[in-house]
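PROTEIN DATA CARD
Card holder: 2-hydroxy-acid oxidase
Chain length: 452
Origin: Gilliamella apicola
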Amino acid sequence: MNKLTDIIKDPQRIVLQNAIPPSHLTDGLQLKYGQADILVYPKTTAEVVEVVKFANANNLNITTRGAGTNLVGSTIPNGGIILDLSLMTNIVELDKQTFTVTVQPGILLQDLQQFVEQHDLFYPPDPGAKTATVGGNISTNAGGMRAVKYGVTRDYVQALEVVMADGSVLTIGSKNVKDNTGLALKHLFIGSEGTLGIITQCTLKLIAKPKVSQTFIVGFNTIEQAIANITTVLHTLTPTALEFVERKVAQWGEQYSGFQFPLPNSQAYLIIMLDGADLQTIEQQRQQLLANLGDCDFFVAEDSKQTNQIWTIRGSLVRAVEAVTQQDPIDIVVPINRIADFINFTKQLEVQTKVRMLAFGHAGDGNIHLCILRDDRDDHQWQSDLQLVHQALYQKCLELGGLPSAEHGIGTAKVSYYNDAIPATNRQLMRAIKQQFDPKNLLNNQVYTTII
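Structure generated from the sequence above:
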């Protein structure tokens, strides 16, 4: 077999170089573009296997992608084949007895969540891009707002089917809750951004769907007060979500969404969601928290409409900025007791560089999201200022004991900062793993280019 048309019988699922849509040559930011020779849409594991064998025989790179929501260049191709898994959307099995669901990687997160919730089950990982694919979530170990209580994608992957770089198929993990039978190979693929293998099927852990939830907002006079009370919140209860946002940042979401954020006289907020078996318990937890917080204002969402408006504003912040000016999204994580230090540093850097920055994020796990605004800078000034700001932010992050990525990944955008953060011995071991799994360096070889 020496032709792709022998593998993919449907000609509409093979697109040649000049006809490849520009959207498939970039990532979610659509600012940088690569090039590729062929775009392929497989529907089955068998087709993926044969495409990989074809790539091996012809020494073609493979860039795997799903919905294309990645923000760090992981889906920007470097020649060869783009393997688009967005047609692999089947729900293979829902097993209520073992609380697992098995799906193909192209299913969208929002579709998976809606499906299992119809059966009174719950898939907790909830990153901001609900239209991302589950395979993409696994490849970046996506987190999201509910990570503070429920953990991240890694915590819900039970088993994987992976097509290796030589076309062989690896099945790892199981439906068993406990597994100490050999090395946990599945964890090598979770967060690897497609560099070690191609996920073609995944079995995910589910939990019982919470009966009730409640969202409320605590307002403070300063962002320092808000952040200082994060530990109070975490010592008092276990929130489903715990977000921080300043008034000036919330206003961007207001303008974009058309909704009014509560407590307009406060200057900073903690947005808190609780869930559980009954509303009475949640009310008791909320009252206990408010008693511990001291001087603050609060607002409790009375119904689903108010709840949806609050989370719509929070979820629209990045899009709100993009509607006004080009921006560079930063995804940094620091220990939760250093959030205030990092936020204060961004304010100082903003004054020093005159580059506007909007900071918000997941207060419960130290994951800070920054929008760096281009405003009216020309290309040269924008790139110069952006590099200066990046270097300062990532250096401060490391000083505080943080890391350059919490959930977006490294891709091509953060390689130099990744190298600063990870010891050379660790990177050498990663190179050895990559060499063992993909000796020809065909899989997403544009990612981590300096270490593999």
